Amino acid sequence: MSTLPRLVLPCLLMLASLLVRAESAPSLADDQELTRWSIAEGAPADIWTMRYAADGKLWLGTGLGLFHFDGVQFERYALAHGQRLPASNINALLLAPQGEIWLGFHSGGVARLRDGQVQAFGREQGLPEGRVLRIARTANGHIWAAAGTGLGRYDGSRWTRVGAEAGFPDREAYYVFVDSRDTLWVCGARVLASLRSGESRFSVYRQTIGRDAVVAEDLEGRVWLSEPLGGTRALTDVLGMPLPPVAESGPPARQTLAKQMLFARDGSLWLTSAAGGLLRVPDITRLRPGQRLAGDQPGLQRFTSQDGLMADAAVPLAEDDEGGVWVGTNFGLGGFRPRRMHAVAALSSVGFAGFVLAPHGSGVLAGGGDGLWVVDPPQAPRQLPGGRLARVLAPAGTDEAWMVDTNGLFRVRGRELRAVRLPVDVRAPLSLASAPDHEGGLWLSVTGAGLWHVRVDGRAERLEALPADLGDVQLVEAGTDGSLWLGVADQLLRVDLQGRVLRYGREQGLSLGYLSAITSTDSEVFVAGHGGFARMVRGGFAHVDAEQDDAFGSVTGIVRDERGDLWLNGARGVVHLDREALERLSAPGPQLVDRLVLDSRDGLPGIALQAPNASTAQRDAKGRLWFVTNRGVAWLDPRLLQLNRRPPGVEILSLRSGDRTFKPGQPMALPAGTRSLTVRFTAQTLAAADRARFRYRLEGADNRWQELGGQRELLITNLGPGRYRLHLMAANGDGIWGEPGLVYEFSVTPQLWQTWPFLSVLLLLLGLVVAAAYWLRTNALEHRVALRLEERHGERERIARELHDTLMQGLQGLLLSFHVAVGSVVDGRLRAQLELALRRAEALITEGRDRVWALRASGDGDGALDSVLGQMARELLQDDTRLALSLQGEPRALDPLARDALLCIGREAMLNAVRHAGDLRRLDIALGYAPEGCWLSVRDDGRGMDGRWMQAGARPNHFGLTGMRERAQQLGGELQVQSWPGEGTEVRAELPAQTAYADPRDRRRGRWAALWRKIWPRRRTPAAD
């Protein structure tokens, strides 16, 4: 073999290997998705140092001061009033226990922050001069600072320069780092030294290093070093023992030099390059122990401003607890997370019509503006010849498909396209929607021509069961039972095997607007529209309104994975609903469910394609899910989906009431008169933090949990005086809810007029006013009654005088005349009759004189009232009628008019019993005295009163009951009549103390007793048996 072939062949082989290596090495953009926050999004510029805190915040030391970031917004560290930092350009940052923050400045000096207070340290406090680039803390609590002119140590009371006396020979220090063994590593201008925990002298690394060296530790405990002379390499083994340098074979490779290094949880190594940009080694195990990281290392990934990084001047790196890697630049902040969705690069160039997909083989068949593609990762997409503009695709078996383009309907098999002739024109864009029929055939909706069924052999027939005025069908779904589900405008239709059509619309609870997607199984139907998403349950629909959760708006694709979970392709991205979430959609009506949203931060290009000809979500034979967007096609494998399982906490940032702002802390007392409170809070998550959602519950006002969505500010209104407990909880971007752990207590100080002493005094005064008003009113009523009684007494006396002076005297004179006349009668029989009549007349005159005397005597009859009533009853009753007389309460002196009224009422009630009760065997008379008044009850055991008389209040043409009622009412009392058919009748008269009793003291006591009975009524005292 000649010399030329011997030289050319190895070169060709080497070139081929390099090309293969370059072809097979994935880029960082293929594995990780970058979210950017530039100055335009509020990020500070010149981010030189960065730390992740346990509370979920990212702290940024910048050229403009200290900031923290919660994944949504950047906030400057709030200093206490009158406090300020010694400088604003921060190069070093350390988060220490007890909330301490240590800062190192470009101009020199260190500051310690705690609760907004600043304590500055400089040369006067023993700190070496020069720019402070790094601060570290060892387990003994000592703070170490790498200053330009030396190494400083703070022991809790003062700073000390550490140098040769402690075994560190270099007069300059540029980097300090503490590893997991609590060993301190210090990089000087030319020296690397380490100080083990518990030792007092440094050990110096025997090889010289270059300036600007940095140190990091990997997950297995190896310490790595990156410096200009030796490059980037492992310095120790997993036990912390030094590794010898690895001899390089061949020409020296271009080495990498890091500004910062970070070993992420997945084992990858991240570096911000001194040459600019970002480097990542996905698998460091491919490096031999001690081997340098070369610039052409296989698998090394680069990411610069040309790839989307905010700027090439990148320095700090940090990893959060959720697997995200953060990089700070001089023009903003970037966050990297593993891609969960994979965009198909060959299908990223899309026109207005977008792509259509159909399962095909073990992948999918994609149709778009530039023809048909067979896509089955990891194989490269393969374009079929012909350049067809496919608008409808549907599977026709494992390796076959139906396709509609501008030329008509075709059956695709491999590279072969066979035309299928139909009685109607189905050329795109006349075909509206399609669905496979589970037997290899096709259902096809055609504009103005109805719905057609194309069988496997190409025969086609129109579905005649649909109403003529139905309109065009825009959605078709073939059920596994042979039924059809159709979407027409905002209505869902079901066509069963017998051709019967059932409609579902607003009357059945389906109010999603224009329908855009349908999917069905043997027992479930899901439908989506512009206004939300719904599941058919028990003839109705459980639905999620897009107004309540916009992730469910404008869904154009619904697909199930192999586990039965549901995936929706909508305007917010891809929405995942697991079985637990679907089970919450079990009752008709609006619902809220937990969900996962995947969007551009997960690798999804764009949003769901709107107004498609087919579902924009498909599943292939391998279980992968495919989604069509307005910017192409993407897929994911749900079995490999990694969720962020870290539940976030909630932090209250501030509280504001009116023009006053309060810092959260101990339980807070708001000023008197506070009616509203604004609470600002955030979730302790950085992974897709703007997708975090919140709930709250306010004890003391409403104990129910309320949904806040992504809102990070809560306005509480209508606060009254009292104590409150605010509960807050959050879900991270993947829908994992934290515990309701944050409870913030606050109270609203009452106004003077809202305090219990004031209210008590007010109630007391109100009671006194009411009592005084009642006393004045009753006094007025008593005075009025007294006047009426006096008038009645006067009238009675006048009537008595008139009767005595006129009628009685006249009658007496007539009797005397009659006596004289009788004496002259000779007939003995006639005389006897006249004498009998005269005796009767004298008896009547005597009774009349007694009545006149009664009028003048003001009712002061002889004997107790109960005795008089008993005597009356005995005179009226037959001998075989039993009389029961009872007295309740302590007898009191009665007013004459009240006594007379009770006597008259009692006599009339007894007469009614004797006359109308029928077979009267027993009569009960009860007289009662109480503080609030006097009462009399007369009850018989007769036949009772007619119901008509009870309603009328009296018997026709009889005035006994009317007279009794009027007598009671004239004295401010009442008369009650109760009757029971076949069991008797009770007449009860009640007179108030103000008119019943003669003693003024009894009357006053009666007033208060009556007031108390109004407030606290009691059961009526029953009549004695």
From TrEMBL:
<keyword id="KW-0732">Signal</keyword>
<keyword id="KW-0812">Transmembrane</keyword>
<keyword id="KW-0418">Kinase</keyword>
<dbReference type="InterPro" id="IPR011712">
    <property type="entry name" value="Sig_transdc_His_kin_sub3_dim/P"/>
</dbReference>
<keyword id="KW-1133">Transmembrane helix</keyword>
<dbReference type="InterPro" id="IPR050482">
    <property type="entry name" value="Sensor_HK_TwoCompSys"/>
</dbReference>
<feature type="transmembrane region" description="Helical">
    <location>
        <begin position="756"/>
        <end position="776"/>
    </location>
</feature>
<dbReference type="GO" id="GO:0000155">
    <property type="term" value="F:phosphorelay sensor kinase activity"/>
</dbReference>
<protein>
    <recommendedName>
        <fullName>Histidine kinase/HSP90-like ATPase domain-containing protein</fullName>
    </recommendedName>
</protein>
<dbReference type="Pfam" id="PF07495">
    <property type="entry name" value="Y_Y_Y"/>
</dbReference>
<dbReference type="InterPro" id="IPR036890">
    <property type="entry name" value="HATPase_C_sf"/>
</dbReference>
<keyword id="KW-0808">Transferase</keyword>
<dbReference type="Pfam" id="PF02518">
    <property type="entry name" value="HATPase_c"/>
</dbReference>
<dbReference type="InterPro" id="IPR015943">
    <property type="entry name" value="WD40/YVTN_repeat-like_dom_sf"/>
</dbReference>
<keyword id="KW-0472">Membrane</keyword>
<feature type="domain" description="Histidine kinase/HSP90-like ATPase">
    <location>
        <begin position="897"/>
        <end position="995"/>
    </location>
</feature>
<dbReference type="InterPro" id="IPR011123">
    <property type="entry name" value="Y_Y_Y"/>
</dbReference>
<dbReference type="InterPro" id="IPR013783">
    <property type="entry name" value="Ig-like_fold"/>
</dbReference>
<keyword id="KW-0902">Two-component regulatory system</keyword>
<dbReference type="Pfam" id="PF07730">
    <property type="entry name" value="HisKA_3"/>
</dbReference>
<dbReference type="GO" id="GO:0046983">
    <property type="term" value="F:protein dimerization activity"/>
</dbReference>
<dbReference type="GO" id="GO:0016020">
    <property type="term" value="C:membrane"/>
</dbReference>
<dbReference type="InterPro" id="IPR003594">
    <property type="entry name" value="HATPase_dom"/>
</dbReference>
<feature type="signal peptide">
    <location>
        <begin position="1"/>
        <end position="22"/>
    </location>
</feature>
